[in-house]
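Example S7 (structure tokens).
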């Protein structure tokens, strides 16, 4: 089983992690479908940014920034 990279992992370490994860989980390797999925994740990122811009208090904004990190991680998973 792939070991989740540490927080300050290098891009190369993340690439290796995702490559192993793809093999383990038998994820789809079709380039066109992966670009389509990446586009969906970019849309999710845009929605979070819009929500952050609309947030009217620090607490709400903090939770949204966690979501922002999750969406950026999703995008990173598709661009290695
Ligand atoms: Mg996502």
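Recovered sequence:
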């Amino acid at each position: 089983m792939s070991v989740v990279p540490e927080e300050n992992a290098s891009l190369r370490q993340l690439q290796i992690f995702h490559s192993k994860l793809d093999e383990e989980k038998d994820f789809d390797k079709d380039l066109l479908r992966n670009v389509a999925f990446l586009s969906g994740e970019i849309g999710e990122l845009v929605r979070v940014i819009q929500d952050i811009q609309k947030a009217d208090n620090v607490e709400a904004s903090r939770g949204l920034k966690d979501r922002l990190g999750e969406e950026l991680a999703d995008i990173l998973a598709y661009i290695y």
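Notes on this example. DSSP finds three helices and no strands in the chain.
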